[in-house]
Specification:
The chain has a three-stranded antiparallel sheet with strand order 1-8-7, with no helix packed on it. A three-stranded antiparallel sheet has the order 6-9-10, with no helix packed on it. The longest helix has 21 residues, at 3-23. Helix content is 14%, strand content 26%. β9 and β10 (131-132) form a beta hairpin. It is flat. The protein is of the alpha+beta class.
Amino acid sequence: MSCCKALRTAPLWLLALTLAACGASTTRLAPRVTLPSPLTPPAILPFPPPAAPVETLPAAPSDPSCVWQDGSYVFEGENFSWQPGAWVRPPPDCALAGPTYSFQPSPLVPQGVVHYYAPVWVRLAPPAAPQLCSPPPPCDAPPPSVAKKP
């Protein structure tokens, strides 16, 4: 095989290996949903958050109902702080929406403002409008007890 031909086929092998590794992931991710309109009022921010850091996921809990909820930025005072991701038990029939950022022009601020919608868990109940769910408990907390019927 010539040197040039080996260089042309090497990226294909690398791509195939990368795709195979990505396909082998067993991470249980939180179910996601995009809402047509927000359910909560936005926080009005002077600037967008920095790029999200890369998170290293801790080992998955043995409880199969636990899912990984990605971390996100929270605006506190005058700065953003990172809220790390966590393994959580999603509320029944709920999915995670957000966080969402949108740029909005403003007559009071020449550079415009950022509308930030914090991540929320929502229950989609067509044909009714989506409803807010309670935040999920972390997976290191004991699972909710279920009352036994007499």
